[in-house]
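Closing statement on the flavin-adenine dinucleotide sub-project.
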Amino acid sequence: MPIPAAQLDAVAADLTRLAAETAQTGPWGSGSFAVLARAGLLAEWIPAEDGGHGADEATLVATLTVVARNCLTTALVLSQWAAACRLISAAGPEIRRRELPALARGDRFTTVGISQLTTSRRHLGTAAVRAHRGPSGWRLEGQCPWVTGADRSDTLVTGAIDDDGKQCFFLVATSAPGVTVGPPLPMLALSGSRTAAVGLDAVRPAAVLEPPAGGVRTGGLATIALALGAAHAAVDLLTAEASGRPVLDPIAAALAAEVDSVAADLHRAAVGGIDPDGRDRLRSAATSLALRASQATLTACKGAGFIHGHPAERLVREACFFLVWSCPQAVATNVLCSLAGLPVG
Ligand SMILES: Cc1cc2nc3c(=O)[nH]c(=O)nc-3n(C[C@H](O)[C@H](O)[C@H](O)COP(=O)(O)OP(=O)(O)OC[C@H]3O[C@@H](n4cnc5c(N)ncnc54)[C@H](O)[C@@H]3O)c2cc1C
């Protein structure tokens, strides 16, 4: 059951009010993650039998889009938390009972570090994280190059390659011996997400998790929801600029229509499913829209929008995130072709 629209509006207003602080300290320190927990939004990702509400996919992507429209830092942290929760939700009853109710309440945090299996360091030809099974159980060795909220999370869901070359998934306590959380990376944008590398030195995992149904995927509907929310935020600012400047009206209207069209496609995909090619095309469209809408907004805001601290410059920097985050090769190729003026597949 989705939360009432008026309550979602109140959450959106709180996230916007806290956004500047969240960009600095992250959603843990600013209180924006607590806003999500209090409103029951975290519980949407947790099955009812494990202390949540178990919302449907369309509700989840709609929630992510609203959060991203009002605070992309919070949305990134939420998306990684949600990816971890999905994998924990497929575990046995003992692990679910131990982990999920506290996650639904926002009393504990979790995150995910699996890009080494999909989009990071793949060209090196060696596994970034390896799993060995010995007489005393599993041991993990290596580095997760990207973990959002690493130093604010109690647990990490990670993926490794075992001695037979198979992918396997684990829940790791970030306080476990052998876990080293690196310093938060200073980035072009979203540094408040406290994204860092995590080293694993003979780490004994807290639990073995089932591999995701259908294999580990990247560029899923959550990433499209975040790009759509970012585009929406840019169109909101452009529409405000357009008031009293008729030359901007058709630009804001065209981009708003494109936002509506991507939102409708995303809703259809969440309700009825989408094949991998269609998903990559939709992600490419959402990425392109976020980039173009933010740059149109900066153009409308002129030099004032170029000054550090103006929302337009932040939106332009944040939109670049979609060029690199959870970006499958097909999407990267589409973006590169479009930038080079070549036909997009
Ligand atoms: C802000 C942010 C937060 C993120 N949070 C998470 C998270 O919480 N969890 C998670 O799992 N992931 C996360 N990611 C990871 C993300 O999804 C991608 O995996 C990541 O952006 C891939 O970039 P990379 O530099 O690791 O890629 P790599 O492929 O490792 O590229 C690194 C460098 O290697 C070189 N290179 C790349 N490909 C080739 C090639 N074919 N041949 C030769 N050289 C090559 C290039 O010089 C490149 O700069 C996050 C990313 C960002 C930006």
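The chain has three domains: 5-105, 110-209, 221-339. With this model delivered, the sub-project is considered complete and its resources will be redirected to Aim 3.
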